Amino acid sequence: MKCRIYRCNCRKVWSVQTRRGKITAQSILLTGEWTTELRPDRNCNPKGFVTTLQSRDIILDPDLGLVKPFEKASKLIYDKHLVEFNIRQGKYLFFAEDGSCYILKRC
User: From which domain of life does this come (predicted)?
Assistant: First the structure.
C-alpha cells in the first residue's frame, strides 16, 4: 500500500498517510525504496511528499540501535517555493526530530 511521508511543521511531527488513515511520529526510519511526489497544483501544503509502496519498511520513532548500521550520506531537501526535491528517489531515509531528512547508506 502506498504511504506518503511529510512534515507537519505546525505540530513539529512527521506524518505517514495511507488511504486508511494517518499516524504521526517524532522520527522515522525508512529502510526501503522511496520516491518523491510533487503536487504543485494543490491549494494547501504540503505539496511535496516522500512515498514508498511498502509500509513494512517504515519504522516509527526508531531507537539508536536501528539507525547505527547506517551513515548519513546527504540531506534530502525540499524547496517549498520551487516545489521540488534535490533528489527524486533512493533507498534508506531517516526523518529526524529536528525536521531534517537524511539519505542513508549502509556502513
Answer: Bacteria
* 3 HSE (CA, 13 A, CB side): 20
Which of 83, 73, 75 minimizes the C-alpha distance to 37? 83
Cα(94)–Cα(102) distance, integer angstroms: 5
d(Cα 30, Cα 36) in Å, to the nearest integer? 13
Q: Give CA–CA dist 83/57, Å, rounded.
A: 26
The predicted model scores a pTM of: 0.93
Instruction: Quote the domain boundaries for residue 39.
Output: 3-106
The domain tally of the chain equals 1
| Sequence-ordered list of residues with C-beta below 8 angstroms from that of 51, at least 6 positions apart, any chain | 2, 3, 4, 5, 34, 35, 36, 37
